[in-house]
Amino acid sequence: YRYPVHDAYFAYASRGCIRKCSFCGVPKLEGAQRDVQSITSVVKRIAALYGEKKDLILMDNNIVASETFKNIIAEIRDLGFVPGAKLRRGRIPVQRRVDFNQGVDARILCKDPMYLRELSSICIRPLRIAFDHLGLRKPYETAVRTAHGFGLIELSNYMLYNFHDTPADLYQRMALNVELNESLAIRIWSFPMRYQPTDLPNRSHIGENWTRYQLRSMQLILQATHGVVSGAPAFFRRAFGPTVADFEA
Q1: For residue 11, what are the β-bridge partners?
Q2: What is the pTM of this model?
Q3: pLDDT of 16 strictly over 80
Q4: What is the pLDDT of residue 231?
């Protein structure tokens, strides 16, 4: 197996998170939100040892919560990762990209257009936004629409399920992305992620509103789609059903 992202710098601009989500292992593993060493110094050391890389993959858990968010984005621009940036590989220039691989927080994004304005000033692709339960619908939808307004049209998101949600909750979140794809002419790829307690040695947890059969059925659908929920309406209806009732059935 070859990891698909290989021509890239891997780094952190911050560790930890301001949130204390009960489903998440980050507070236990990394602690409170804090900035770490300069991205620039990491990138320059890697380039000196292994040559210049095409992409910049940042593994931060909640970059928009950083007190130095604007400075971090300015650093990324100064490193050359601006919209349309290319790196010559032989005779062919290849498109560069920035990926905040763990996603960004819709609850912060929706508070001030500054966050998405700044993110649109780098070659971010895709913009990943977490959508962990239906209660986040308003900030999530606001963030997506604001992103579209700044020209960010390739998006991806993580959807937690098998926690306190229901199958109907998950279906409605997936269906919302299909609606947003159609109405805004954007591309949102969803990645449903099944909750498992961090202290459980095997993947046997069944959420209070799910059954083993439902989880197995969901797994079978995602195996066929390689874990991705496409935003194409016809495909979505074929894979997950045209209504909540059909999905539950």
Answers
A1: 58
A2: 0.92
A3: yes
A4: 78
User: How much is the average pLDDT of 113-120?
Assistant: 98
Q: How far is CA 140 from CA 103, 106, 167, in A?
A: 12, 5, 19
Pairing label, strands 8-11, 34-35: unpaired
Structure tokens at 203: 């993947």
What span, in angstroms and rounded, lies between the C-alpha atoms of 246 and 88?
50
Calculate helix-pair angle for 39-50, 69-78, nearest 10 degrees: 30
Q: What share of the chain is helix, strand, coil (3-state, %, to 5)?
A: 40, 20, 40
- The answer to whether 110 touches 66, Cβ cutoff 8 Å, is no
Burial 61-82 (b: 16+ CB within 10 A, else e): bbbbbbeebeebbebbbebebe
**In this predicted model, which residue has the larger pLDDT, 55 or 230?**
55
The upper half-sphere exposure of residue 116, i.e. CA atoms within 13 Å in the direction of its Cβ, equals 27
Angle (CA) 136-153-188 rounded to 5° is 50
